[in-house]
Write a structure and sequence with these properties.
Layout: H1 2-26, E1 39-40, E2 47-48, E3 56-60, H2 61-66, E4 82-85, E5 93-96, E6 112-116, E7 119-120, E8 134-141, E9 155-161, E10 171-179, E11 183-193, E12 198-209, E13 213-215, E14 220-222, E15 225-239, E16 242-255, E17 259-263, E18 297-298, E19 306-320, E20 326-344, E21 354-372, E22 378-398, E23 414-438, E24 441-464, H3 476-480, E25 483-508, E26 514-525, E27 528-529, E28 542-543, E29 546-559, E30 564-582, E31 588-606, E32 612-627, E33 648-659, E34 665-675, E35 678-679, E36 689-690, E37 693-703, E38 709-716, E39 724-728, E40 735-740, E41 745-753
Parallel strand pairs: 6-9, 13-18
Antiparallel strand pairs: 1-2, 3-8, 4-5, 6-7, 8-9, 10-11, 10-41, 11-12, 12-15, 13-14, 15-16, 16-19, 17-40, 19-20, 20-21, 21-22, 22-23, 23-24, 24-25, 25-26, 26-29, 27-28, 29-30, 30-31, 31-32, 32-33, 33-34, 34-37, 35-36, 37-38, 38-41, 39-40
Membrane topology: Multi-pass membrane protein
Subcellular location: Cell outer membrane
Keywords: Cell outer membrane, Ion transport, Iron, Iron transport, Membrane, Receptor, Signal, TonB box, Transmembrane, Transmembrane beta strand, Transport
């Protein structure tokens, strides 16, 4: 493997040098404007994207608007190797380069770290947010075990908001959008100086959409979405060497399902899975109902399904430079998240099973960094991190539709109630040193020590649901008065895990605007507990930490006088004790012994002049379990592909703008994405998968040329491709359920800037 990497390193170096030499002969420096330079802070210091020896995708706020991106979900269509899944518009499960576990439990911790203005977002139900007033999004791929560190075995996604600036006069922008299915969006942001050293910026956004799907049972459309988000910040410089920023943000996202049910039994209550448990197979579900093949239709008897997620956060960032060569940064942050959900389990016309779910989390974190400033032969960053989280979760499940005695074989209609509190304390110390070994040759070495303690107090009770109906919510108060069997399962324990992770990177610039880098990195995801204990003590689990080691060869090039950017990477990743979530009749969380991911990705941007832009990205991911025999259900998944890890992900964008004789500019744009077959379960079952999906979007924009007004018409999913975004194997209960994509959407928008 190392020998092959040496050969590839030499080959890429030779090709890059030749391409640059050819470019210098071919083009004059003034021939074209060139590809936009983007400043990123992936290494916790401001650097040109092309100078950072990390494979990353950076999307500016303007680029996100041009793609009509609304929420976190939309980033995946512009980023290779990134997959978002989830059962509703308010929840996100994320996979990068094949790594992720798909758990929708309240205490789930993703393999990809989410950061808002350098604050780690620990809650799994705080991830899918509106993309409000952002300067850029940085998607860092591969283990980020040093400066970011916590739970970043797959990578990290950093959201950087636009900052207030005392040097700028009053400025702002307002945008309204109307689209199919009653969609109405509004967004506004404004910044203003309060003095020569102080400024404020505020932003807010609203989104509403009526459901594009038809509930054939109640004869209504659904689901309805209502999103609202806000952010405010004040920046001050009380002294020439001291910067202070106070920010607050919040959101309220409301949405719900629906999921598409697919029957899996040979006959009602046969508890025998049919030969073709797909929509094409037209098998009945538990009660004998056969769902329609139309993906625009769902079949639910429940009127009040909902998913209500609320978030609030505040952070104080201090930047102090006590001297010319040292900078100190302190980030103090508080995050609070709340989720209230009522969802069907089966999504059928019968009242088989309902889930009432309430969870709250609060998180306090503190990070301090000390870093060198300026260009030196040796630069460095050291720091420490602390966080304290408290999560409470209450879940009630009804099983009325399965008849009396479903759990205890007694005479009552039954259900379960689960209640737990989990406390997590994290400590870390980290450091990274950047050595200039020779002209164009640098070495980066970094280490991070992590210590994480988790304590859980969990109980599971069986309930007597006689007299209840589908309108009965299983709240904590209701559960307390209807206990049938108390403490069916309990867990009260605490565990502590420690780890040393980091990276070593050698990067070399053979000629100007060409960078080659070779990285060895390690990532760590702390162990945890199964928050989905549903039936009994056999589901109680403690998973070991997930550890990842990755070797990556990458290159970054700006060719032909910076009109062509060609970046890429090849990597080999080994995963030990991968944490795997297996949904089904029971919700299992366990470790797979080993997995490996081999892959590569390239990105190309061509901007030969002011008018034309072409973006293209492609990634190949070969991800499979090397050794995985489930201890809980006895199945052997060795050799299976990892869930939500399509072999191919591709995206592209082309735009052309031209000036109009009467003034102003017209820009035509088309963007597309593709991902190959995706398996949603560790079983690699084609019945729980989606074949290749190609999506095409288009946009036409007129702006007045003075930077004030712009008007757009757009279409998303032009070919009206309906497909499964995620799937959940519950075939032994008589059904599988799937999250369905949105159909074709047409819309118009107008923006005013000043």
């Amino acid at each position: 493997m190392i020998r092959r990497l040496h050969i590839l390193f030499a080959s890429v170096s030779a090709l890059a040098c030749a391409g640059t030499a050819f470019a210098q002969d071919l083009l004059d420096g003034d021939a074209a404007m060139g590809v936009e330079e983007i400043v990123v802070t992936a290494q916790k210091r401001s650097e040109n994207l092309q100078d950072v020896p990390i494979t990353l995708t950076a999307l500016t706020g303007d680029a996100l608007k041009a793609r009509a991106a609304l929420t976190t979900f939309d980033i995946a269509q512009s980023t290779t190797s990134l997959v978002f899944a989830g059962a509703s518009s308010t929840m996100a499960t994320v996979y990068m380069r094949g790594l992720g576990d798909g758990s929708f439990n309240a205490n789930a911790v993703p393999s990809v770290g989410f950061y808002l203005d350098d604050v780690y977002i620990g809650s799994s139900f705080g991830l899918n947010q509106m993309l409000l007033d952002l300067d850029r999004v940085e998607v860092l791929k591969g283990p980020q075990g040093t400066l970011h560190g916590r739970n970043t075995t797959g990578g990290a996604i950093r959201f950087i908001s636009r900052k207030a600036d005392p040097r700028q006069p009053l400025n702002g922008e307002f945008r309204v959008t109307g689209a199919s299915f009653g969609r109405v969006d509004g967004e506004g942001a404004m910044g203003a100086p309060l003095s020569e050293t102080t400024a404020i910026r505020v932003a807010a956004a609203y989104h509403r959409q009526d459901g594009p799907f038809r509930n054939t049972v109640l004869d209504v459309n659904g689901p309805r979405e209502r999103f609202f988000a806000y952010r405010g910040s004040i920046v001050s410089q009380p002294a020439p060497n001291l910067d202070v920023q106070l920010s607050v943000h919040g959101s309220n996202n409301k949405g719900a399902g629906p999921l598409k049910e697919v029957g899996t039994f040979t006959a009602p209550f046969s508890f025998t899975v049919c030969a073709n448990p797909t929509l094409a197979g037209q098998c009945p579900d538990t009660t004998g109902f056969v769902p329609s093949r139309n993906l625009r239709e769902y079949h639910s008897e429940t009127r009040d399904t909902h998913d209500d997620v609320r978030n609030f956060g505040a952070n104080l960032t201090l930047g102090w430079e006590p001297g010319d060569s040292i900078g100190i940064t302190s980030i103090s942050a508080y995050e609070h998240n709340r989720r209230n959900t009522r969802a069907e389990i089966d999504w059928s016309p019968e009242d088989l099973s309902l889930n009432d779910f309430l969870s709250r989390s609060r998180q306090f974190s503190q990070e301090v960094r000390v870093a060198s400033i300026g260009e030196h032969p040796v630069s460095w960053t050291v720091g420490g991190y602390y966080s304290d989280e408290r999560l409470t979760s209450q879940s009630g499940y009804s099983f009325r539709g399965f008849g009396p005695g479903f759990l205890t074989f007694g005479p009552n209609l039954e259900g379960v109630y689960q209640d737990y509190t989990q406390k997590t304390t994290s400590l870390a110390a980290f450091g990274e040193v950047y050595w200039t070994l020779a002209r164009g040759l640098k070495l980066t070495t970094g280490l991070r020590y992590s210590r994480e303690r988790k304590a859980i107090d969990l109980s599971l009770d069986y309930l007597n649901l006689d007299g209840s109906t589908g309108a009965t919510a299983i709240t904590p108060g209701y559960a307390a008065g209807h206990i049938l069997v108390a403490d069916v399962a309990t867990q009260n324990e605490a565990r502590t895990w420690e780890n040393l992770s980091g990276r070593v990177t050698l990067d070399y610039d053979p000629v100007e605007r060409v960078k080659l880098f070779l990285t060895l990195s390690r990532g760590f995801r702390a162990g945890g507990y199964n928050g989905g204990v549903l039936f009994g003590p056999d589901e109680i689990a403690v998973v070991d930490p997930e550890r990842v080691t990755s070797v990556e060869l990458g290159w970054k090039t700006d060719l032909f006088d910076r009109t062509l950017r060609f970046n890429g990477a090849l990597y080999h990743t080994k995963v030990k004790n991968q944490q795997v979530f297996v949904p089904g009749v029971v919700l299992l969380l366990e470790n797979a012994a080993t997995a490996r991911v081999n892959g590569g990705e390239v990105s190309l941007t061509w901007k030969p002049d002011r008018a034309f832009l072409l973006d293209f990205g492609a990634a190949y991911t070969d991800a499979k379990f090397l050794s995985y025999r489930s201890n809980m259900i006895g199945a052997d998944y060795t050799g299976n592909r990892l869930p939500n890890a399509p072999r191919w992900t591709l995206n592209g964008l082309a735009s052309y703008g031209f000036a109009l004789d009467g003034g102003g500019k017209l820009t035509a744009q088309a963007d597309a994405s593709y991902k190959s077959r995706t398996y949603f379960s560790v079983a690699q079952d084609r019945a729980i998968s989606e074949s290749g999906v190609f999506l095409l979007n288009a946009r036409l924009t007129f702006d007045t040329g003075d930077g004030r007004w712009s008007f757009s018409a757009f279409a998303k999913n032009i070919f009206d491709k309906l497909y499964f975004k995620d799937g959940f194997d519950q075939s032994s209960l008589g059904f599988n359920t799937f999250a369905v994509s949105e159909p074709r959407l047409f819309g118009v928008s107008a923006q005013y800037s000043f």
